[in-house]
């Protein structure tokens, strides 16, 4: 190396000497040798390890996007899945060499016609002991309900006041900037919230307005003596148009009814029992968050249209039962208002009551299930089981 040179550049003779020192036979080695040199300036890169599925999507032209706003933990989204991103450490040194060749890259076309050794110089752009790995996770869509309820639809006469208030309306593109979910998962969450597109913006109905329009529909069915399994759509829209915009009537019909075969040009629908009962049950619970169970069941059944049957299972994720002063009570407890962190949620649930059966607690922890861990796995990890009179209960791991 000449005086003043910053690095020594290896030559073929150097390579041959090293091969001799290692006591290897040169004819057993691939004919390409790569000499590594560290760059004079190291740029800041982050290393991300992708699984085979994500790598294939990337190679197929699918866009991978990091999503999250300030203070969010970043997630990586493809077209249909969300991945949590975590930093991992390695005791080995990871060298970033963009043009490095692997054995499979060395072919006759790159090694030449002869057996002469080829020396290639490669630049190391960085040395790393950490990298980011990804793991499939549930989309983080709890925020979606809050965003949409801030601009909920309360009737056409309230739209100008909503706009004047400065409430933000969200398109799909806007939501993807805020919600940590893939586009497919976002649309799935929008369907679960019964959201609808109005002039390119996603909206939900304000709950009181929602139940009022549903009441219009149910009262009309009763007044017209229509069978709940044979409701004429065109007549519903025509009669209710003076009270509610037609697109809202159609939306309520879509949410609470399903099509039935009809030979006429007037489509027919039938009520979806579980959905109607759940909303009317929630309406009762919002007005009075605690009931004696038998009293509630009686009031609830009287509130639904004749021909529909109420069942407590229809309120999964909205209520829990509690023995109090020798009577069984039902308490309003919407799952979507509970803590988003699994540890915080379990602490909250066991604060409501000491012991839960599997069927009682399941609706409140389903959101945390993954392909590798179901509700039983979650309870094994975060609760302890016991039996009382042959019934299995789950309680806090740190309880008395």
Automatic annotation (TrEMBL):
Keywords: DNA replication. GO terms for cellular component: chromatin; chromosome, centromeric region; Ctf18 RFC-like complex. Transmembrane segments: none annotated. It comes from the Eukaryota. InterPro entries: Dcc1. PANTHER family: SISTER CHROMATID COHESION PROTEIN DCC1, SISTER CHROMATID COHESION PROTEIN DCC1-RELATED. This is Sister chromatid cohesion protein DCC1. The lineage of its organism: Eukaryota, Metazoa, Ecdysozoa, Arthropoda, Hexapoda.
């Amino acid at each position: 190396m000449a005086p003043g040179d910053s690095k020594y550049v290896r030559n073929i003779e150097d390579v041959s000497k090293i091969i001799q020192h290692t006591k290897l036979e040169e004819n057993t080695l691939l004919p390409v040798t790569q000499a590594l040199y560290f760059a004079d300036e190291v740029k800041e890169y982050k290393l991300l390890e992708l699984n085979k599925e994500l790598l294939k999507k990337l190679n197929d032209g699918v866009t991978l996007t990091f999503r999250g706003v300030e203070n969010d933990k970043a997630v990586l989204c493809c077209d249909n899945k969300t991945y949590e991103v975590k930093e991992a450490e390695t005791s080995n040194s990871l060298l970033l060499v963009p043009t490095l060749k692997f054995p499979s890259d060395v072919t006759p076309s790159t090694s030449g016609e002869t057996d002469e050794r080829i020396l290639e110089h490669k630049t190391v752009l960085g040395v790393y002991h950490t990298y980011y790995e990804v793991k499939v996770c549930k989309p983080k869509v709890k925020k979606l309900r809050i965003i949409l309820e801030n601009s909920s639809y309360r009737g056409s006469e309230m739209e100008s006041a909503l706009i004047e208030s400065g409430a933000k309306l969200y398109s799909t593109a806007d939501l993807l900037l805020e919600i940590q979910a893939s586009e497919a998962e976002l649309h799935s969450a929008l369907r679960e919230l019964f959201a609808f597109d109005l002039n390119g913006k996603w909206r939900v109905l304000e709950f009181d307005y929602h139940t009022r329009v549903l009441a219009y529909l149910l009262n009309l069915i009763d007044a017209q003596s229509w069978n709940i399994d044979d409701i004429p759509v065109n007549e519903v829209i025509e009669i209710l148009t003076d009270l509610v915009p037609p697109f809202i009537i159609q939306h309520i019909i879509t949410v609470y009814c399903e099509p039935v075969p009809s030979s006429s040009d007037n489509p027919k629908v039938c009520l979806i029992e579980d959905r109607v009962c759940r909303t009317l049950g929630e309406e009762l619970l919002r007005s009075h968050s605690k009931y004696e169970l038998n009293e509630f069941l009686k009031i609830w059944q009287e509130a639904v249209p004749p021909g529909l049957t109420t069942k407590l299972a229809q309120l999964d994720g909205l209520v829990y039962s509690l023995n109090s002063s020798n009577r069984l009570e039902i308490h309003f407890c919407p799952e979507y208002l509970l803590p988003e962190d699994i540890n915080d949620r379990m602490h909250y649930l066991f604060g409501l009551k000491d012991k839960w059966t599997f069927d009682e607690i399941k609706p409140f922890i389903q959101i945390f299930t993954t392909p590798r861990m179901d509700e039983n796995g979650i309870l094994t990890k975060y609760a302890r089981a016991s039996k009382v009179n042959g019934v299995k209960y789950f309680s806090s791991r740190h309880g008395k």
